[in-house]
Every structure is written in structure tokens, then in C-alpha cells.
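Renewal narrative, Specific Aim 1. Our central claim is that a sequence can be written position by position from structural information alone. The example that follows is taken directly from our test logs and has not been curated for this report. It begins with the C-alpha cells describing the chain, in the order in which they were read.
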């Protein structure tokens, strides 16, 4: 019979840590860097995958699967995966395209491929039918990352000026607190010239002229 792992082994430490975490948690090998060498951690993760405790999503990315009685095994959210990848190196990310528009309620389309700009290394993670691409970009493109203005700029870029309607502007004004919308004015210079009047309409306060 195989010898049981000791209480201080990397296997035991990794297993104990994973079992304490909530279902749906996403892990990278670096999550367990304090427990031992990369090789030992990789072997521990492989064993947990073989036992069905973890699921390998992509190279170096694992999750503790959640299960639903009706839907079966669920995939982790984009936000959960990106947070895990970005967390170690404090990377900044900026949603783009249809995903950015969806986050703002401007599109009901759920993209099969999500692209986020980053100031870190480019990489792709496959989570079931969803492909998440972190794409390295220029400092200017990341200047408004993590702010409402960055999300608006990327969403409007994906939609195009001809497809941004007064109804879209009104929806944003109703769904986003005025104090947050007002902050957009500080980042107008980061937006293309055609987009600036639209961002002003989103940001303007009650009683102001368009």
C-alpha cells in the first residue's frame, strides 16, 4: 500500500488548503508557492485533479468545481478566473468588446470569446465553452483601466457611433450613480474625439444642458 502523506508534506498542505476553500474557487500553482517547490505543488495538484477534487481549466489554472442539480457541473465566471490570474502580479485588466458592453447592460449577447487588455503577459484560458484572452497592450490603452470611463470607452468602441442610441445613453444614466458618472469627465482626453460628446451625455448631471 502507498505510504500516507505526512502532515507537513506539500500534498497534505495543498489538499488541506483546497478543501477549506469554497466551491468555485480558482487556483494557480503560485497560490501554493509557500508550501514547497513548483514541482511538488504541480504533483499535488495533479493528484487532486485525478481524485476529482480539482478540475484543470487550462495550463496552470484549476478550479474547485461547483455543481447544480439542474445544470450539472458549472464553469467559473470570467471575473473569478481573471481575478485569480491577475492577483499574484497585481496585473490590471480592462474588459473590451461585447463583454464590456454586456457588463454595462448595453448588450444581452454573451460572447464565447472574452478579451481583456492587460499590462501583463498575454495568455489564453479555456473554461468550457468560454475562451478568455488576456492581451498585452500599450500604457495608453490601460490608462483608464479599473474605472467606469475605461469600460465605457471599450464598450462604445465595440458598438460604433452609429449603434449608440439615446436609449443606450439613458440606460447608462439610470443604472450608474451620478457620482460615478461624473468621474468620466476626467478621462475624456483618453477617448476618441467622436466618443467624447457621448461620454459627456452619460456624465452630465440633472439640470445640465446636453
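The sequence written for that structure reads:
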Amino acid at each position: 500500500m502507498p505510504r500516507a502523506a505526512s502532515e507537513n508534506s506539500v500534498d497534505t498542505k495543498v489538499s488541506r488548503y483546497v478543501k477549506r476553500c469554497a466551491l468555485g474557487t480558482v487556483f494557480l500553482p503560485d497560490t501554493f508557492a509557500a508550501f514547497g517547490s513548483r514541482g511538488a505543488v504541480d504533483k499535488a495538484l495533479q493528484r487532486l485533479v485525478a481524485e476529482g477534487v480539482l478540475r484543470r481549466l487550462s495550463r496552470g489554472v484549476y478550479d474547485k468545481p461547483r455543481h447544480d442539480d439542474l445544470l450539472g457541473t458549472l464553469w467559473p465566471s470570467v471575473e473569478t478566473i481573471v481575478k485569480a490570474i491577475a492577483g499574484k502580479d497585481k496585473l490590471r485588466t480592462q474588459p473590451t468588446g461585447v463583454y464590456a458592453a454586456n457588463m454595462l447592460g448595453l448588450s444581452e449577447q454573451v460572447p464565447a470569446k472574452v478579451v481583456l487588455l492587460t499590462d501583463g503577459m498575454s495568455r489564453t484560458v479555456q473554461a468550457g465553452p468560454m475562451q478568455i484572452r488576456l492581451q498585452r497592450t500599450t500604457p495608453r490603452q490601460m490608462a483608464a483601466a479599473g474605472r467606469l470611463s475605461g469600460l465605457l470607452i471599450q464598450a462604445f468602441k465595440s458598438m460604433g457611433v452609429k449603434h449608440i442610441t439615446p436609449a443606450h445613453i439613458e440606460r447608462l444614466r439610470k443604472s450608474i450613480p451620478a457620482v460615478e458618472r461624473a468621474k468620466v469627465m476626467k478621462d475624456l482626453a483618453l477617448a476618441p474625439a467622436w466618443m467624447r460628446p457621448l461620454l459627456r451625455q452619460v456624465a452630465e448631471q440633472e439640470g445640465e444642458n446636453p
